[in-house]
Design brief:
GO molecular function: glycosyltransferase activity
Protein name: Glycosyl transferase family 1 domain-containing protein
Strand order of the largest sheet: 3-2-1-4-5-6-7
Shape: elongated
Structural class: alpha/beta
CATH architecture of the largest domain: 3-Layer(aba) Sandwich
CATH topology of the largest domain: Rossmann fold
CATH class of the largest domain: Alpha Beta
Keywords: Glycosyltransferase, Membrane, Transferase, Transmembrane, Transmembrane helix
Bound molecules: 2-acetamido-2-deoxy-beta-D-glucopyranose
InterPro entries: Glyco_trans_1 (IPR001296), Glyco_trans_4_5 (IPR041693)
Number of domains: 2
Number of strands: 13
Pfam families: Glyco_trans_4_5 (PF16994), Glycos_transf_1 (PF00534)
Length: 470
């Protein structure tokens, strides 16, 4: 790494320097995320680089008025099923800060606090208290009183439904008309009456993608014989912090050089990566098979391509899973150790997005509920090779911002071919990356998400008010 760039970093972006230091002493403060991942849950970049004295609202919507302004002085209770560094709770925290920024009064309760993540819980709660979010126990009288007083109650994820009966008891019916239920799950075991029996009576449901919303409509009708409330699809947006790095050429170059050096990847090599917790549902095994197949195709056809690498970010050897060992033995068996790199789970995805050339989103079965990493990669001008499933199909434009392949074993060869395509057609790859970035600027920024959420909150408040008035 060139000296002058470090100097630049030190003066311009202290956090970036701090980050590089952390990286280089490989004890990167990796917040390990619990193994149980949901389709929507993912480790997000929550490193807080924003000076806390600056009002958040100044950041989110340049000249246009903040769409959430009408929430000023509204009392909102946020109910999180847990507090960890996974997608669901972090999104709810982002909402908390958006609402705080316009002067809403925000209360937060966490239903389930696992003992082993005590430190993470403590630091997240601390962060919220610093921003004026009031945190208290999910089971006390305070929670009940606040729910009764609140203008709006946001339940985060399907499992939070249990809290309603457990804590509110006889008051449930009074609270339901002001509940907005934010759902990020798409797995069978969430379709339990235990969790979701109150769905028909809440004011609204907010779901991350059209396909997930449709899935909920189907399953609640067919399996549970209950009706969904008013349902809104709200695509997520990229955080301001992530966009700052993505749009900073120098920061990106420094991170790219640094990460590549740490992995032993040269600047002219081409890197394909999956950034997701390692699990069968995320399809790292099938990706490695495709990668190996693409190497064979290149050899057979004697194609001229740069040295190719596959990076798997999201590894957790501590968990000692069978799946993780399977991946490693496959790599050894195929003798591709010099081309496949495993990186531990980390919250800071930006350096890896800066370092790679193509993001692979290989989530299997019904795919991702949304898959925030997809829009994060697009912000870094990366094309995406994704499964034609779930939220990915609502983000990636096949042939324009990336290429889609089928989920399952039948997707292995198509993905291998797509890998070869992007390795051999540099121009096409770069153009797709640029188109992806344009799409993010059009639709997937924080202020787009805030706009969409504002529309939902307005309607939910209006409905709950007319309910109270009548
Ligand atoms: C929902 O049900 C309809 C009709 O049965 C079906 O065509 C559609 O594929 C289902 N959608 C999902 C996401 O399950
Ligand atoms: C990754 O995790 C493993 C297992 O927890 C640990 O032994 C290793 O040092 C970690 N690697 C880095 C680079 O932090
Ligand atoms: C994506 O586009 C390619 C052609 O560019 C096509 O062969 C493939 O079937 C498309 N896949 C999906 C899922 O639409």
């Amino acid at each position: 790494m060139a000296k002058h760039s470090v100097g630049w970093v030190a003066s311009q972006k202290r956090w970036l320097l701090a980050f590089l230091v952390m990286l280089s002493v490989s004890t990167l403060i990796a917040f390990f995320i619990r193994a149980a991942f949901d389709t929507c849950d993912r480790n997000l970049d929550v490193v807080d680089k924003r000076p806390s004295t600056v009002p958040y609202s100044d950041f989110i919507v340049g000249a246009s008025p903040n769409p959430l302004k009408f929430m000023k002085s509204k009392l909102v209770l946020l109910v999180s099923h847990e507090l960890s560094l996974s997608g669901g709770p972090l999104l709810l925290m982002e909402l908390a800060f958006l609402l705080r920024s316009v002067g809403a009064e925000i209360y937060w309760v966490t239903i389930q606090k696992p003992v082993d993540t005590g430190e993470v819980v403590y630091s997240l709660e601390h962060k919220m208290l610093n921003r004026g979010v009031q945190v208290f126990s999910a089971r006390g009288q305070e929670a009940v009183d606040t729910a009764l007083k609140a203008d709006l109650v946001v339940l985060n994820t399907a499992v939070s439904g249990k809290w309603l009966d457990l804590v509110l008891k006889e008051h449930v019916v009074r609270v339901l008309p002001k509940v907005l239920w934010w759902i990020h799950e798409m797995r069978g075991h969430y379709f339990k009456l235990d969790y979701v029996k109150h769905l028909p009576l809440v004011s609204g449901a907010m779901i991350d993608s059209h396909v997930t919303a449709e899935y909920w409509q189907n399953r609640t009708r067919e399996r549970l014989r209950i009706k969904m409330p008013h349902t809104y699809v709200v695509h997520l947006g990229n955080s301001k912090e992530l966009m700052d790095v993505a749009e900073d050429r120098v920061a990106k170059r420094v991170l790219r050089e640094h990460v590549r050096e740490s992995l032993g990847v040269r600047s002219e090599d081409i890197v394909f990566a999956i950034i997701n917790s390692v699990s069968r549902g995320k399809g790292q095994d099938l990706f490695l098979r495709s990668f190996y197949e693409s190497l064979q195709m290149i050899q057979e056809k004697k194609l001229q391509v740069p040295m190719m690498h596959a990076v798997i970010v999201g590894s957790d050897m501590n968990a000692q899973t069978k799946f993780e060992s399977e991946l490693r033995s496959y790599v050894i068996q195929k003798k591709i150790q010099d081309r496949v790199h495993f990186v531990n789970k980390t919250l800071t995805v930006a350096p890896y997005l800066a370092a790679i050339d193509v993001l692979v989103q290989n989530s299997q079965a019904r795919g991702e509920c949304f898959g925030r990493i997809t829009i994060e990669a697009m912000a870094f001008q990366l094309p995406v090779l994704g499964t034609a499933a779930g939220g990915t199909t609502e983000i990636v434009v096949n042939g324009t911002t990336g290429l889609l392949h089928p989920a399952g074993k039948e997707g292995v060869t198509p993905l291998a071919k797509n890998i070869v395509k992007l390795a051999t057609h540099v121009e096409r790859r770069l153009t797709m990356g640029k188109r992806g970035y344009e799409k993010v600027k059009e639709r997937f920024l924080e202020h787009h998400m805030a706009d969409r959420i504002a529309t939902v909150l307005k309607e939910v408040l209006r409905r709950s008010k007319s309910h109270t008035d009548s």
